[in-house]
Amino acid sequence: MATERLNSILNHLTPSKSGRSALTQKHPDDVVITLAIRTPLTKASKGGFKDTSFDYIIYSLLKKVIERSHIDPQMVEDICLGNVSDGKAAYKVRAASLAAGFPNTAAASSVNRFCSSGLKAVQDIANQISEGSIECGVAIGAESMTAGGDRLSKPFHHEILANQEAKDCMQPMGQTSENVGNDFNISRELQDRFAAESYQRAERAQKAGWFDDEIVPITTTIKDPKTGEETQVTLTKDEGPRYGTTLESLSKLRAAFPDFGDKSTGGNSSQVTDGAAAILLMKRSKAIAMNQPILGKFCGATVAGVAPRIMGIGPSLAIPKLLTKFNLNLATDIDVIELNEAFASMAVYCIQVLKIDPLKMNIRGGAIALGHPLGATGARQICTGL
User: Which residues pair with 143 in a beta bridge?
Assistant: First the structure.
């Protein structure tokens, strides 16, 4: 073990020819992903999880983590949940983890960084493992948009509203999408064209069974809205993909936010969705010792803020910031890119500014076609990307 540790240190100190070759080296103390699974994504308020409580969604997925990984739950030291709209998320993930079979020695917490909450949970667990605070942890992203969204219920204090950017934080997400489209001349046609491609990719992926290895079946109940009768169902597929979607069919839809613009529609904006995703992380040495499959290596993460009125273009700053830290080139070093499609306006902007090859990005479709359960999407993207 001492020899392995010494070799690991020497490897880290030895200069590599490029950023990519450095990151693809394997060291015992690498933070690795050994499991990445998710629930099906269902339509909020009318889909498969419409009558399912948020805590049950978390509980069901955590049970599947134990079942699919075959790990001893006693090995898990922390569970972090990314969630946006439930103020009691920390209570719920703690109770759900205990009921699912994790011991009371496994801590639990929740984090909220809006649409990247699932990624924040992964970053939190990975950083703890990297610095030696824990050896094994689970990151979850989950959201029941049936139960609630992210809209503020009342304005900020008047002194806060005196600051224009602070006041802009009150803008609805749809308004920020129209701001991007108007400010940067992202036309309705460009947005519809991007959305059509997302739907078509998701359709091909679903029909080919490409999501099957990341989705775990969840058994729950659905209540008939007319009779109140409850029926047990097992959910196995995403409900978002709309087969046969084309540029022509999307172009016929009316604007979703006419008070703010005429470019964003229900067809080129992400869907309101329920769902969850979970990522199991540990040191490479531990994964090998526990005979766990290694799906990927966590290399790093960063954050970057933008003006609130154009909040969705954050990836255009965060991506180059992270790539610079690792001496990577987006065009030549990165083969697959998962970028959230909160709105087509923002996705198209990021493609244009970062000069992303569309053939590399969201190759199985994105949030426009699959749905965007706010706190879950970041973790879901890891599942799909892997």
Answer: 275
Report the alpha-carbon distance of residue 386 to residue 379 in Å, rounded.
Answer: 11
Q: Which of 1-5, 40-44, 316-320 has the lowest mean pLDDT?
A: 1-5
Helices 188-208 and 344-354 meet at what angle, rounded to 10?
100
CA atoms lying within 13 Å on the CB side of residue 272: 14
Q: Are 370 and 381 in contact (CB under 8 A)?
A: no
Rounded to whole angstroms, how far apart are CA atoms 328 and 340? 21
* For residue 15, pLDDT beyond 50: no
pTM of the model: 0.94
Euclidean distance between CA atoms 137 and 81, whole angstroms: 11
Residues 211 and 205: beta-carbon distance below 8 Å: yes
How many angstroms separate the CA atoms of 188 and 9, rounded?
52
Q: Which residue has the tokens 């697959």?
A: 336
278: β partners: 37, 140
Residue 170 has pLDDT above 70, yes or no: yes
What distance, in Å, lies between the first and last C-alpha atoms of the chain?
A: 30
Which tokens hold the place of 224?
A: 């008939």
Distance of CA 124 to the CA centre of its chain: 14
Task: In whole angstroms, give the CA distance from residue 369 to residue 308.
Answer: 25
CA angle 364, 204, 211 (to 5 degrees): 55
Cβ-based neighbour number of residue 254 at 10 Å = 9
Q: Binning pLDDT at 50, 70 and 90, where does residue 10 land? A: very low
Q: What is the 3-state secondary structure (H, E, C) of the chain?
A: CHHHHHHHHHHHHCCCCCHHHHHCCCCCCCEEEEEEEECCCEECCCCCCCCCCHHHHHHHHHHHHHHHHCCCHHHCCEEEEECCCCCCHHHHHHHHHHHHCCCCCCEEEEECCHHHHHHHHHHHHHHHHHCCCCCEEEEEEEEECCCCCCCCCCCCCHHHHCCHHHHHCCCCHHHHHHHHHHHCCCCHHHHHHHHHHHHHHHHHHHHHCCCCCCECCEEEEEECCCCCCEEEEEECCCCCCCCCCCHHHHHCCCECCCCCCCCCECCCECCCEEEEEEEEEEEHHHHHHCCCCCCEEECCCCCCCCCHHHHHHCHHHHHHHHHHHCCCCHHHHCCCECCCCCEHHHHHHHHHHHCCCHHHECCCCCHHHHCCCCCCHHHHHHHHHC
Tokens coding 244: 């046969």
